[in-house]
Design brief:
The radius of gyration is 16 Å and the shape is globular. Helix content is 42%, strand content 16%. The longest helix has 18 residues. It has one domain: Aldolase class I (TIM Barrel, Alpha-Beta Barrel). It is an alpha/beta fold and 207 residues long. It has 9 helices and 8 strands. The two termini are 20 Å apart. Helix 5 links the parallel strand 5 and strand 6. Helix 1 runs parallel beside helix 2. Bound molecules: the ligand Cc1ncc(COP(=O)(O)OP(=O)(O)O)c(N)n1, ligand 3NM and magnesium ion. Pathway: Cofactor biosynthesis; thiamine diphosphate biosynthesis; thiamine phosphate from 4-amino-2-methyl-5-diphosphomethylpyrimidine and 4-methyl-5-(2-phosphoethyl)-thiazole: step 1/1.
Length: 207
């Protein structure tokens, strides 16, 4: 897959007065180079509408587009890939459906990371590093120690996620993360572009 550094996930409840596309385009202008549609409430038609719109947007900018959970939606809009958690469709089943599209897998412990790598994941999510209110059913925070462990043992790309803010990202980078993912800190910001630029500048400094 094309490498990436700043992974922005949609979270429409964090910007009730702004349109999805406007916010995600601003994130792209700030340097987000991979966008994920994560929507836990819309029905299929609404999800497809958003996915098509984000596919058009990301294609215009040459940015990677991932759909969370819904393999069928990812296939229908020709997304670049799919993100799956430990309780979603298995990686091996998903691979049969998506072929060589990107598959990202959430991991919360080294055994999960090693298994995902062995089974052919293209990247893994590593978290939640800190407590987050964005995902209700998430496991307890794994801390930067898990980031450090993954940096030492895993060869495929990994992205740190979960409660990551401009105020705490330095220690995540110090632990070995070279790719950062955020929902609320990016899309809930009054300056989405500036927040993305600030994340990237911190990654640059320690890279
Ligand atoms: C990049 C990235 N990492 C982790 C997740 C979480 O996926 P999952 O565990 O399936 O939880 P939901 O997002 O589906 O609630 C993610 N979406 N993206
Ligand atoms: C969607 C998601 N997955 C996580 C995981 O650890 O797998 S943490 C998370 C929520 C991230 O949102 P925020 O940046 O607002 O904390
Ligand atoms: Mg999921």
């Amino acid at each position: 897959m094309k490498d990436f550094r700043l992974y922005a996930i949609t979270g429409e409840n964090f910007h009730p007065d702004r349109e999805l596309l406007e916010v995600m385009e601003e994130a792209i202008h700030g340097g987000a180079d991979i966008i994920q549609l994560r929507d836990k409430t819309s029905g299929r038609e609404e999800l497809l509408r958003k996915a098509r719109a984000l596919r058009d947007l990301t294609r215009r900018y040459g940015v990677t587009f991932i759909v969370n959970d819904h393999v069928d939606v990812a296939m229908e809009v020709d997304a670049d890939g799919i993100h799956l958690g430990q309780g979603d469709l298995s990686l091996l089943e998903a691979r049969r459906i998506v072929g060589d599209k990107i598959i990202g897998i959430s991991t919360h412990a080294l055994e999960e990371a090693l298994l995902a790598e062995e089974q052919g994941a293209d990247y893994i999510g590593v978290g939640p590093v800190y407590r987050t209110a964005t995902k209700a059913d998430v496991v307890d925070p794994v801390g930067v120690s898990y980031v450090r462990e993954v940096a030492q043992h895993i060869k495929i790309p990994f992205v740190a996620i979960g409660g990551i803010k401009l105020s705490n990202v330095d220690e995540v980078i110090e632990a070995g993360a070279t790719r950062i993912c955020a929902v609320s800190e990016i899309v809930g910001s009054s300056d989405v572009k500036g927040t993305c630029e600030a994340f990237l500048s911190k990654l640059d400094k320690q890279g």
